[in-house]
Design brief:
The complex is a heterodimer of chains A (about 260) and B (about 270). In chain A, helix 3 packs parallel to helix 6 (about 140-175), helix 4 (about 85-125) packs across helix 7 (about 180-190) and helix 8 (about 195-220) runs antiparallel to helix 9 (about 225-255). Chain A has one domain (about 1-255). The model of chain A has no long low-confidence stretch (mean pLDDT about 95). Chain A has nine helices and no strands. Chain A has about 260 residues and is mainly alpha-helical. Chain B is of the alpha/beta class. Chain B has one domain: 3-Layer(aba) Sandwich (Rossmann fold). Chain B contains ten helices and ten strands. In chain B, helix 3 (about 95-110) packs parallel to helix 5 and helix 4 (about 115-125) packs across helix 5. The chains are: A mainly alpha (about 260), B alpha/beta (about 270). Chains A and B meet through helix 5 of A and helix 2, strand 6 and helix 3 of B.
């Protein structure tokens, strides 16, 4: 019994210590961002690795999610004779929820895990220590550009996901199931509010981008510098990011849409 | 006055003491070797000197500055005058040899591209790898990677270079090249070199002064000739590479016969 309490206490202390380290790390990363104004090429390079290379995954996933939404939504709406509202259903589902959430989950799996593995391997091969000894701060030189790139990429990828998803819903709804295209687009435009729906979705994706990139970079930087340690850190990035995205989504939804 | 002055150094990892009251002087222009068995904290000592780790007690002064009392920017300024050669080379794997050597120049200076090119080629020429400048780190052998890392460590013309196990895992030709390079560089550039190693023969060949570390303490110090004549059995065992002696072959524990007859671990 005593041993259980002791190990629980140890776990609690370790967790809080790690949380503390993560926040100090975040502070250091954020203080490195102003200096990137003079090192734009570092950010552009990372935007390519983090954002552009995730593009194909986001594009294909968005299209299929939209198509499935169109199919499922039509089958439900047609029972009530409301199939012309399919555009509204697809757009609101994507813009408010699925766009930011699914794009963030995919982003964590594709770009987040790659960031953790890259930073973890740089640590285990002493590249980060090497930079420190060359008087180059690895947080400012390596981590901050990646953080900024992740933060910028995520909302853009979520927007692309939603846009392609809506197009996928239209393809199925109009092309396959015969929903009137005028009704699809006009109802969507009337019922989707710029501030209430689109902007709130964008805010969600910004928050997810911030959190996922933070988790991914911290896990890499804090990884035990062995192959097993880097492997575990990569797994933790995906798992912790998924929890953070889904938990934060509930909180943000409650704040934005809860009355 | 020594370039590096270590006084009463104490450092712990958890409950395990790595250093307990270590005093070391590294003199300017000399090659000083820090030797000892694996796990005695030789690499840790270099990280303490470089300010990457903080001691639990004691001071480390480099060129008159207490490393662990410097601000972040002061420490980074000091590091510009320190070179370090990591055991793995620690080359940046996503850029080629030329860019690796140019990396510190690009980060710390605003020199024109033509001058950077000349500087990098000079450093690569010194380590014999000028014509390997377009190769990626993954294409280099272990010895070549260390020579590139040595060129990179010298790029900013530091006052000192710390070598972490430079000879480990090298074939005889690479080993000879590295020994020769370290010795020549130290003389030509009037450097101060610290070599952390357990390769006795190669290190003793070029070191002006040797510290032997074990159990968190300096066991012996002196020139290689003095150490070879030491009356300490431990020093003799280490310098001659004897398998048994004060450092036993068997890890300490219960006797073999007791272990065989012990019923408790039989499943």
């Amino acid at each position: 019994m005593i041993e259980t309490i002791r190990s629980l206490g140890r776990w609690g202390l370790n967790t809080f210590e790690r949380l503390g380290r993560a926040h100090i790390f975040l502070f250091q990363v954020l203080t490195g961002i102003p200096g990137l104004a003079f090192r734009g090429s570092l950010v552009v390079q990372q935007l390519f690795y983090v954002g552009v290379l995730s593009f194909a995954l986001i594009l294909v996933s968005g299209l299929f999610v939209g198509m499935v939404l169109g199919l499922q939504g039509y089958n439900t709406l047609v029972d009530f004779g409301a199939e012309e509202s399919l555009g509204v259903l697809v757009s609101l589902s994507l813009v408010r929820e699925l766009g930011p959430v699914v794009a963030a989950l995919l982003f964590a799996g594709r770009a987040g895990s790659a960031l953790t593995a890259e930073i973890g391997l740089m640590k285990s091969t002493e590249q980060l220590s090497g930079m420190e000894m060359m008087a180059v701060d690895p947080i400012r030189r390596v981590i901050s550009p990646r953080f900024l790139a992740g933060f910028i990429s995520m909302p853009l990828l979520a927007a692309i996901f939603s846009a392609v998803g809506i197009f996928g819903g239209f393809l199925v709804g109009h092309g396959l199931l015969g929903v009137d295209d005028g009704a699809f687009w006009s109802q969507m435009q009337v019922k989707t509010d710029w501030y209430g729906d689109v902007l709130n979705g964008v805010i969600k994706s910004v928050v997810f981008g911030f959190v996922v990139t933070w988790i991914a970079l911290f896990e890499g930087y804090d990884a035990i510098p062995t192959s097993e340690g880097v492997g575990r850190a990569t797994t933790r990035t995906v798992v912790h990011s998924a929890f953070a995205i889904l938990g934060l989504d509930f909180v943000l939804t409650a704040l934005m849409f809860g009355d | 006055m020594p370039l590096i002055k270590i006084r009463d150094l104490h450092f712990y990892r958890g409950d395990k003491a790595i250093f307990e009251g270590v005093n070391i002087d590294i003199h300017r222009g000399k090659i000083t070797a820090i030797m000892g068995p694996s796990g005695t904290g030789k690499t840790t000592l270099l990280r303490l000197i470089g300010g990457q780790l903080r001691p639990d007690k004691g001071t480390i002064e480099v060129d008159g500055q207490d490393v662990h009392k410097l601000s972040h920017s002061e420490l980074y300024e000091l590091r510009k005058r320190m070179g370090m050669l990591f055991q793995s080379g620690a080359l940046l794997t996503d850029i080629n040899v030329f860019e690796n050597v140019a990396f510190p120049i690009r980060e710390h200076t605003q020199l024109p591209e033509s001058m950077i090119r000349n500087l990098v080629l000079m450093k690569l020429q010194a380590v014999g790898l000028r014509c390997a400048r377009d190769m990626m780190p993954s294409e280099l052998s272990g010895g070549m990677a260390r020579r590139v890392a040595l060129a990179r460590a010298m790029t900013l013309d530091p006052m000192m270079i710390m070598y972490d196990e430079p000879f480990t895992g090298q074939d005889p030709i690479s080993m000879g090249t590295l020994v020769n390079l370290i010795h020549k560089m130290n003389e030509a550039m009037r450097l101060t070199s610290i070599i952390v190693s357990h390769d006795v023969v190669e290190t003793a060949e070029i070191a002006d002064f040797i510290y032997l570390l074990s159990g968190g303490k300096v066991i012996e110090k002196g020139s290689s000739v003095q150490l070879k004549k030491s009356s300490s059995q431990w020093v003799q065992q280490f310098m001659q590479g004897l398998p048994d002696g004060p450092v036993p072959f068997h890890y300490p524990g219960v006797s073999f016969s007791d272990d065989l007859l012990s019923p408790e671990e039989i499943v």
